[in-house]
Amino acid sequence: MMALKDLHKYVSSLKNTSLMPALFIGHGSPMNAIEDNEFSRTWKLLSELLPVPSAIVSVSAHWETKGTSVTISSPPKMIHDFYGFPRQLYEQEYPAKGSPELAKEIIAATKRIIIEEDVQWGLDHGTWSVLKYIYPKANIPVIQISLNRYQDPQWHFELSKELTFLRNKGVLVIGSGNMIHNLRILQVNNNDFNAEYGYDWAFELNDILKKKIQERNLPALINYQSLHKDAMLAIPIPEHYLPMLYILGIIQESDDIYIFNDKVIAGSLNMTSFMVG
């Protein structure tokens, strides 16, 4: 794994390729959208280094549907999908345009399933809380693709492979979730949600996940229940894990993998993220 100090050199090299990188972002608490912390600072650093995409396609843990849908509204509405947070968080806006044209192109290019057009959803916090740092001007069109809650990880991985063409079109694909995510057993010390603290199994599984990602052991990552004896404690429901599979599915043989924000927090959550390119 590269050291964080190498991020500038690594990302700068991506500007010399026609293939757009792709990101899996561990987005963590909605409060990251308004806090100056190590995670938001890394997202801000990405804003200075990444190529400027023609559009952004986000697969967020916070949009689950029956079937699969893609947003076609322009502009997409802002969704504040959380409760009990400070007023400042509800006042956040990210006025990006949508791209009905790109949404329709994805629908046409996807052969194995039918993707439906959606005008009700917009940009949830899994998308805008990260993009407000990476592309703060909100001047790049953004669409979201939903997660079909009735399908298994293998199905999602196979669907993701049909999105590979987007990288050749200069489109940035982002998966936004958390690899380890169990809110029921969170432990927050001294009111610091982002303090490094974890159950033993969380640290162990975080290391296993990073190793499997770097080895490109995709079958093991798809069948995550077998990665560790406590995998179902770490991933009791898969909606925050599945966005990662959408990035694994579009990795190319020539890609490097760079892991960042590698941290276990609040007992049962990790912020570990990676870029391919």
TrEMBL record:
Ion transport among the record's keywords? no
Q: Which InterPro entries match?
A: Extradiol_dOase_DODA, Xdiol_dOase_suB
- Give the cofactors, semicolon-separated: Zn(2+)
Extradiol ring-cleavage dioxygenase class III enzyme subunit B domain: residues covered: 45-254
- Keyword vocabulary terms for this entry: Dioxygenase, Metal-binding, Oxidoreductase, Zinc
**SUPFAM superfamilies noted in UniProt:** LigB-like
Query: EC annotation?
Result: 1.13.11.-
Query: Does the keyword Protease belong to this entry?
Result: no
What terms describe the molecular function in GO for this protein? Answer: ferrous iron binding; oxidoreductase activity, acting on single donors with incorporation of molecular oxygen, incorporation of two atoms of oxygen; zinc ion binding
NCBIfam families documented for this protein: PRK10628.1 (NF007914)
Instruction: Give the family per the record.
Output: Belongs to the DODA-type extradiol aromatic ring-opening dioxygenase family.
Identification of the protein by name: 4,5-DOPA dioxygenase extradiol
